[in-house]
Amino acid sequence: MTQEIIVKASSLFLRTGALAAIFGMGLGISMGITQDHTLRSVHAHINLVGWASMFLFGLYYHVVPAADSKLAKIHYYVALPGFLAMMAGVAGLMLGNGSFEPLAIVGSLVTFASMLIFAWNVFSTTKSSAASKPAAVAPAR
Ligand code: HEM
Ligand code: HEM
């Protein structure tokens, strides 16, 4: 018998954020050791777009179950490739390979699009105080 395992967008974002922190800090430590700060911006954005933003998305979806919807899953599957493309593109650029520019641009725009999806979700789920309460304690209607 197969059992469907449903992974929520909150878990996906929290896990990706935690992994990004490991990669971002690892890169920061290696930059400190080698005294080569070429990838400073990659380090900064792995930590800020990956760790800080994604963990924040995950926390919002965890605290507001009404927001942890299909739209939140779409948000994740737009945000992840956007983030990876942007980081790969910026890393290539920083390392002096101009052919990575389109990847950095597309990654940035997709990352921006993912933020628009999140903003839409936040506005939809903060319309009433009931919507932003955890489902378990929301008044039954
Ligand atoms: C083990 C942890 C970390 C280490 C060893 C580390 C190391 C570094 C190093 C060596 C630089 C380059 C500084 C320079 O070129 O002037 C840097 C820059 C930066 N780091 Fe980290 N970092 C760590 C964690 C973080 C975290 C958690 C964040 C954000 C949440 C972060 C955000 C930044 C930013 C924004 C910059 C760019 C600052 C600027 O351009 O002035 N770092 N970090
Ligand atoms: C679509 C998303 C984003 C794009 C395209 C973008 C683009 C950029 C660019 C072009 C720079 C200048 C880099 C340089 O001078 O080397 C920069 C710097 C910076 N950005 Fe972003 N950014 C994005 C998202 C974010 C987010 C979400 C945060 C914070 C939560 C952030 C925080 C910073 C900081 C602190 C710096 C200065 C550190 C550095 O020079 O790397 N950015 N960003």
UniProtKB/TrEMBL annotation:
Transport recorded as keyword: no
Residues of the signal peptide: none
Sorted UniProt keywords: Membrane, Transmembrane, Transmembrane helix
Transmembrane segments: 12-33, 45-64, 76-96, 102-123
SUPFAM superfamilies: Cytochrome c oxidase subunit I-like
Entry protein name: Cytochrome-c oxidase
